[in-house]
Amino acid sequence: MLTIIIISIIIVLIVLVLSVLTINKGYSYKHTIDPPAEEKPEGTRDKP
Length: 48
Description:
Distance between the termini: 75 Å
Structural class: mainly alpha
Strand content: under 5%
Number of strands: 0
Oligomer: single chain
Largest sheet: none
Low-confidence stretches: none
């Protein structure tokens, strides 16, 4: 019985560490956005 509890605690700790690492990696991700598209003057269209 004691070995099952120890193995369970080890698994819980591994999952906790992996979760914290994943969250930290997500927070450190550099988000980028596309530059705004150039607006065309009214009256001009794209040629088909």
